Amino acid sequence: xxxxxxxxxxxxxxxxxxxxxxxxxxxxxxxxxxxxxxxxxxxxxxxxxxxxxxxxxxxxxxxxxxxxxxxxxxxxxxxxxxxxxxxxxxxxxxxxxxxxxxxxxxxxxxxxxxxxxxxxxxxxxxxxxxxxxxxxxxxxxxxxxxxxxxxxxxxxxxxxxxxxxxxxxxxxxxxxxxxxxxxxxxxxxxxxxxxxxxxxxxxxxxxxxxxxxxxxxxxxxxxxxxxxxxxxxxxxxxxxxxxxxxxxxxxxxxxxxxxxxxxxxxxxxxxxxxxxxxxxxxxxxxxxxxxxxxxxxxxxxxxxxxxxxxxxxxxxxxxxxxxxxxxxxxxxx
Length: 333
Known about the structure:
The chain is mainly β.
């Protein structure tokens, strides 16, 4: 009887998550379908998770803070419809610049409180559980050595973000390595928004490419200023945002980045803006270090990148480490 009841619970959980994923996929299809006829440049799938910290034993990898993120990004020629008034001519990005491109993305981010290793209870004074389900659109103004990006993000927090059932589903797939987690103090349901502006420049010295960058976001989802420098090292590194007519079929590059953020508001830490909410006090300055490897074969790319984010709120002192797996298809490369 107990086995049957357990199997029923698992089936119900799987069915619930499948329904949630179907709704998310349908929403993404409705949002992205009007743009399918445009000249598509790339399709990129990215997953962030501390389970990808491959240098750690599976049972020793953290399952807290920013613990999971998934996103699908579609890249098209020209500017997004909402940004057409910002340029006179829409020029497709091939081998020369100036030109414009734009992206649409659908994603979900999951944040979980720090829990006791003994009984999975939430450690006092830690961050609340939180999830964000979001869509975004970004327009890029491309020059040979500079990139300017304008972005809009819309989303929702709380139970409609589907974060809790998603985490439970994946934990159930590998129960030996994952503790059962019951969400309690969760950032409540609220629509969220952010507008962003980012600029990046390329500087090359031999096989080393440096990319200083700066930007800002404004909205109840995120309000911050940021700056940093990225780097790529490889023998045949392609231009990051233009196609190249002559290129080797295969290349490998080491990638890295160091950045700092001045944070005024973060929805998943400050809590809901327009209603009562659990919250913690964010730290005003946060740093992040990245390092990994990117591999390209013809039009396909794959990457693994490790991240270390400093403590994001005042009651936490230790940094958090998580990693990214990414795969993409890039037309014209």
